[in-house]
Amino acid sequence: MNEPFERTHFSVKPGIIGARWWQESLAISGDPVLRRQALQSLAVVGVSILGVGVIGSATCTSAAISIASLPFEEENTRLEKRDALATQRDYGWNFGAETEPLTFDGQTYAPFDRSALLTLVNDMAPTTPALRPYYVPTLFQSIVGVPKILVPGNTNPPKLKDVLVPIQTAAMKEAYRQGKALASLFEGTPGDRIVIVDLEGPLSVAFAAGASSVMEPVFVFDNWPHPLGVVPAHLTLAAVAHYQPLFLRTKSTRKGPGYPIFVLDRARLNPYNNEQTQFDNRYVARLPPFSGLKALNDNKVLYVNPSASFNREADDLNADLVEYARNGLDVRMVGAGDFRADPSSPSSPPAGTSPSATPDDWPPFYYAGSADSHEGFWNNYPWNPPRKPVRQPPSGVSPAITNYRPSPRATIYSNAGTGTSKTKPSSIGTVPVVVAAATGAVVGVAVSRSGSYGRYSSSWGGG
Fold first, then answer.
1. Domain-located, residue 72
2. Domains identified in the chain, total number
């Protein structure tokens, strides 16, 4: 029979009340397996008692312990940096913030088939086999992801598919028309070009949706949502949920293999300045190497940024675009804001407009904001001649955009700032977790909205 637990230490300190317990049979047990099992049981008891103590503390609430007040060495715990995505895959998409809600701006109330979310990974995959290696479905995998390690006391964590709702904002409607305008220019032109759209996640999704009748989306979203995430990836996922039926429809009706459009979330590199209140779900974008584009027979690259205010590519793309240009690809940039409505357009579609047009399609957008200047796009991007007379030269577009060419610069993502290779900094996409020293078990994540340490009050997470 196992010996009873005895209290060997008791502490009363600001922010923490707890005890250390010991079972004498551990000292004489010769079976390392039994000893490990006992230590794991010990961790459960110890953390449970610690949680009860904290609840009664006047300085803490909701079983949260201030990181600064936790005597890690004395209480046999330590902080470790772990890969954020791996931690979410192990312990759940909202690990450490299970009671924090997700906020959805622009929630739509159109009929929504929630079960369709379960097929997102396949639905959003490119149909062209040569593009599939560059598809990054990580964000869509979060819908079906379940914790590999269930935390006792939290064995029924909320599933992301049950809390996600589709969104559509006014900015998304604009981005949709911008994508549709660019696609109208590409339609029928030689198939030797690709597009990289790098807007805020929901806007990139909407832009790709507008272009999807002519272009084939290749999604490159490499993180999971988190309630305290630096990157609001749940909004990107919610935008995909809104456009999922459209993407499926254009996938089946698109004529031929469509021009590849790589869809990025510009928020992937959002500022990160507080590891106690922010969950670092940032990541570095992955684009095909030059050899991949060569195999696709693509020698022209159009990079879409938000507007003329952004006259260079995102830092983590510098090495990619420099590599393309050094190998002879023609790399250009256009601002999504260069596609605008014609002020002379009527407020509603005129009689005879195609019945297949949706409210999202009106008013139509044009390059430089005029039907008369629309084909003038090819004057600034001379990949083929205008197909219609340009009655009005494009105006209101930035020369810094139209004259852009990638050049190497110093970034934390490039090898010595030369733009010759790309690396992922070790500071990107990591999260501090609290680990039990005796077992290596993850006890909690050192992130909360209040800047305090989130721990389960009556349980722990096995490692």
1. yes
2. 2
At 214, the amino acid letter reads V
Which amino acid is present at 405?
R
Query: 153 and 64: one domain?
Result: no
pTM: 0.81
Residues 398 and 442 in one domain: no
Question: What spatial distance separates the first Cα and last Cα of the chain, rounded to whole Å?
Answer: 27
Number of Cβ within a 10 Å radius of residue 1:
4
The answer to the question of residue 462 being in a domain is no
Both 52 and 116 in one domain: the answer is: no
CA-based nearest residue to 453, from 18, 155, 58, 51 = 51
Residues 318 and 382 in one domain: yes
With beta carbons less than 8 A apart as the criterion, state whether 375 and 366 touch.
Answer: no
Closest CA to 265 of 321, 214, 223, 209: 223
Tens-digit pLDDT profile for residues 325-366: 999 999 999 999 999 999 887 767 766 666 555 678 889 999
My answer on whether 11 and 114 are in the same domain is: no
* Extended strands (E) in 284-405: 300-305, 330-335, 339-341, 365-367
List, in sequence order, every residue forming a beta bridge with 341; answer none if it has no partner.
365
pLDDT confidence of residue 335: 95
Note whether 78 and 72 are within 8 A (CB): yes
Are 400 and 450 in a shared domain?
no
Q: Classify residue 432 as left (phi > 0), alpha (psi -120 to 50) or beta.
A: beta
In 3-state terms, what secondary structure has residue 455?
strand
| pLDDT tens per residue, range 205-216 | 999 999 999 999
Residues 264 and 130 in one domain: yes
**Strand-pair partners of 219:** 263
Q: Are strands 300-305 and 259-265 parallel, antiparallel or unpaired?
A: unpaired
In whole angstroms, give the CA distance from residue 300 to residue 188: 15
Phi-psi region of 416 (alpha: psi -120 to 50; beta: other; left: phi over 0): left
Give the structural domain span for 37.
5-76+438-455
Q: Pick the closest to residue 7 from 51, 61, 63, 46 (CA basis).
A: 46
Structural contact between residues 198 and 266, judged by C-beta atoms closer than 8 angstroms: yes
Q: How confident is the model at residue 420 (pLDDT cuts 50, 70, 90)?
A: low
* Best mean pLDDT range from 148-152, 314-318, 414-418: 314-318
Integer-rounded Cα Rg, in Å, for the chain is 27
* Alpha carbons 151 and 95: distance in angstroms, whole number: 10
Say if 65 falls within a structural domain.
Answer: yes
Give domain status of residue 87, yes or no.
no
Q: Are residue 318 and residue 371 in the same domain, yes or no?
A: yes
